[in-house]
Amino acid sequence: MNNQDLQQQLLEAFKTEAEERIASMFSNLTELEKSTDAESLGKMLEIVYREAHSLKGAARSVNIIPVETLCQEIEGLFSKLKEEKIIFTPDLFDTLHDAVGVIEKYLSAPEPERHNFEDTIGELTEALSVYKQTENGSKRPGPETQQKNKVPAEQEQIIIPETLSPKKQSSAPAPAQPQAPETLEIFKPVEDVGQSRLSQKSSAKTWFADTVRISTAKLDSLLLKAEELITLKQILNQHLNQIQGTSNFIEKWKKISEKSKNELRKIRLQLHNNSLLDRFFQLYNMNHDQIEETDSKINELAASVEQSNRLLGGMVDDLLDEMKKTSLLPFSTLFSILPRMVREISRDLGKDVDFELSGGDIEIDKRILEGLKDPLIHLIRNAIDHGIEMPDTRKLKQKSPWGKIRLTVSQPESNKVEITVFDDGKGVDVEAIRKKAIKAGLLSDTKATELTDDETISLIFQSGISTSPLITEISGRGLGMAIVQEHIENLSGLIFISTDPGNGTTFKIELPVSLATFRGVIVSASGHNYILPVAHIEHTIRIEPCEIKTVENKSIISLNEHPVSLVALSDLLGLPHQPLPDTKTKKFTMPVVILGSSEKKIACIVDNVTNEQDVLVKSLGKQLKRIPNISGATILGNGQVVPILNVNDLISISSGKSISLTMEKKIDMKKNEPQKTLLIVEDSFTSRTLLKNILEASGYTVTTAIDGEDGYQQLKLGYYDAVISDIEMPKMNGFELTRKIRETETLADKPIILVTSLDSRQDREKGIDVGADAYIVKSSFDQNNLLEVLERLV
Amino acid sequence: MDAKPSQSDPIAEEILKKRAQKLAQPISIDNKYLTKMAVVEFRISHEIYALELKRIRIIHPLKELTFIPGTPDFIRGVINLRGEIISVVDLKVFFDLPDQGFTNLSQVIILTSDEMEFGILADEILGVAEISKNDIQPSLPTLTGVRQEYLKGVTGNGMVVLDDEKLLSDEKMCINL
Fold this sequence. Notes:
A: Four Helix Bundle (Hemerythrin (Met), subunit A), Helix Hairpins, Heat Shock Protein 90, 28 helices, 52% helix, B: mainly beta, CATH 2.40.50.180, 5-stranded mixed beta sheet
């Protein structure tokens, strides 16, 4: 490796390290600002001090001087803070935040633009060094520390929480502490300090003991390879089926051979002393033995393949499960950015906010965590902007001037994660939402009064509704919550809101732990297969063309007496239409999938709905970053790639759309295509009903007659496409009826099918003689036969 | 149609001279790099193309192509490459070339970089060859149009050398709708 490569590699490593250290400094600074507990104060001071020190060293090793100098100042300042030679002031916090912020900006800027920040860095370095020199360190908030201020000696001032039990704390500085910083380094906690201290200690230890850094690219490729094993598993399964098929075949062969053997034995007894036959019998026996041998061998093979199949299947499933776990990340990685954001927003708005985080050690799919970032930021912003009141207002309401925002992550079930975002602000004004919704045209006056408060609050997830009278930079545009909901739903999650006017608002988000698989239904449109997530399918139904109604130029169907707009999947995807299935003799129905996302619903015509199965989401590759209506793809067992549809996209592009004209025309043609009518002439009630049901189910309109005479009268009165008649009937039998029909000029070429139990050659011939078009014997009667004949004749 | 200016026309001569200067390029003999490069030669309808080896991840026979609705026409679909999904580009459509009759796009050449990856459809893979960089002529009057900007040039025997880096970094190739 040459020098340049090494430098490059060092820089990469430095970047990752710096990101982590900066995040940790930010979150600890924020914590420091609101903490009054001496023990945690000392701990956090120590962390920031350590982080600054390490970042300084790292910056030096990659020769980034400005960062090094600034870190040095921060480090120096913190060492004085630790010694309590200076104390925190709000100004100092701002300067420190700015300093860490500028380091972050400097490092994330591309090399040529970095010099833009150098002035700011210089100024901040200067400012910090001024702070460092003005030793105002006489007191610090909190009674405990005030007492301690009496002790001047340097090392005795260092607070080492991890090594001090709470009891010992009162007996003040323990001996042999000068080495303290080194001791502490071992216990360096993870970035988020937002959680309880106890859990943090333990997690800090495991962090160092059990963690290895692996690039996500490597993990992804491992996961990919593990997923490929699924295909192998399916192939093996197929092979097993083939072997079992062969085994069954050989089994049958063996039985035939045994039967022949018995017959041969009888023949030999009849023709005794025939030496040629003896020889034949001998050969035959040899053959039979071979068959038996093969049979037992193949059964053995089938058994062992089955066993390895089961073994491999289990192993593949386990491996995949474990691999999926490697793509899980703790929430703490997301938490690290939040305290700083809360601090900045609340400072801008002049509100005091106490931000609490818990559940940072709960793990969730990396992709979900990434997708959660924006919605969570949005919810927290909203909470500060709309929820929390100004400190004065809070005091008037007898609340603590510090508003509280609590973000809690919990895992109620092994595959489910629940996030709640609570603020103790003023709550959501239900009436205001009602009014806005009416104003925005989402609700009619009458409907508004019918809705319960809970239903009304849920309206804030619709776009165009915001309770904030003021549009600010942060929120109030009324789009936010709709987007939050969409994001959460795209992660296969759900979001709920509840509010207690005057006391606060709670958002609850439910998410799956892993995104990798979900249940999907395979549908087809214009000859291509697509997958729809089951979570978005409300029903699958079949509709007849006559159920489609047109209202204001839009096609709708009625579902539980509610109108739902009807579109065709092929129209939404811009695919050419395929001819509708040929159903001349059957009743024409179309499969329709009812898709739902939050409040909106559409009915979508598809060509076909096949099976439901577990779907493993894959990306469409690096080139196809985002495609409308398609969220990814999956690979079926046979290797076929099937796109996964994005239901949110489909619903939003469907608004205002209707079935395309070409599709409508085709459906209309089907609608106007007259149904074929049949006359059944049969004296037995049971046979008559049976036939009627079979034929009606196949889409014919059926009329019945109880005997030949009745049948003939009916034929003269109405139009029928064909006649199906029994033969043995009272008054006029089938032969007579047929003859009579043939003799009547207007009915002469009517197709006639005789269905009968009479199965003799004479009867058949007689049937043909009198002019029947087909003759079906009841004993061989199966409905497909009849339907086929009908289809041919009608 | 005689566009040739008479020799005594000084203005025309001036224009021609300027044009010649504009088109003239110094013969680059860059000693820092090897003057030879390894390429894969392939055929798309009746034309022979070449792509440098270094950006080619794999060449794979085309089996099943799944159409993705909503993509530009030059994306012919996606394939399953050992469990990974990769999109496939038809250069004829991308280059806006007139339909050149019968093609049997049966091979996929997968180009890859850190940010981008896609397959290019080819009728036939002719093999790997080494060509001299000096042999690549910057341009040929017949190869005008969209294609021009994605070419490194044309070799003496008429093979079109594609610019892999340009193809991989081109914004038009990245579908973000």
